[in-house]
Design brief:
Chain lengths: 146, 214
Amino acid sequence: MEKDIVNIGKSVVIKGELNGSEDLTIEGHVEGTIELREHVLTIGPNGRIKAQVFAKAVIVLGEVNGNVTASEKVDIREKGSVDGDIVSPRVAIAEGAHFRGSVDMQRKDTSQSQVPGQSPSHPDAKAHGSKTAPQPAAATAQRVGA
Amino acid sequence: MGLLDKLASRRPQAGMLVRPADSADQSVFSTKALRQFLSTLTARETPVLLDLGPVIGTNVNFFGQELGCKIFVEDIFRDLDRFVRQGKAEEFSEFLVARFPQGDASIDGILCWDIIDYLDRPAAKALAAELTRVLRPGGALLGFFGTAQPRDAHYTRHLIVDDVTLQYRTYPAERGRQAALLNRDIIRLFPRLRVSDSFLLKNNLREILFRKPA
């Protein structure tokens, strides 16, 4: 079954809330909030985002000015740029990418007191308060028009 | 097995070389102070790290995944280049006073790398004051200082290979190191910190680990 991917073209400018229930590639300008909690957001090389971003995975080849929260992964490619805070269990930043902000991988459940290879539920493991990775919320089905 | 021992297991076997990638600018060298710096972080439940260098993906993963740090990346080298390019290097000290949004005593470890070598005296003092402000009591700051007068205008990316090994890659800078500071000048930059460890490496680089008294 083919996956639906929506593209927002270079000339498109969106201000406000952008959410959906499919993968999305943005080559235009978006200002506001982007929510794709169960899906992959790709900021293309021409994409310029000034927004808070929530997605399953975020791939940045363009520019993001805003905080990025992903339940799986954030991937900043070679010419990508992020100015903002990243919260994600996995983060990949290519050489040549620009990043300024904080990175929080929320690894408190595998802190230094844990023996490598030992699960957090092991009786010898010390208990720590831990935040879990952000859970995707139900996405509203709202298609974006040009 | 503690976390630092786990990191030690990443080191190459004795006799095996860690080969750098193809670039002629890459070299691998030992570090003595990094392990002590890392022990400061691993002593905290939720350590917070401030990295003043360019973002390096493998370093982010090292500190974020292996040590569970929250990492702030504030590339001061890039800022400096911008000021030099614009002909405003003398305004850099004023810029540094307002540069860091982190709160007082909010950072457990600071990777200063060798940025201070590239600053004039007022900017070095301004940076040192801000770093002292954000460092928590008991926190650590790791800095590298050259001992020879600079020739080429380049910066260095320091890639963490393991707790005793760094790989460095040079890249162009708008201007070179300003001066090789004497030990006493370096120490005077951080009057509220104490020198915990100081090493002169074979490549003539000084590693100095500062700690903020608890």
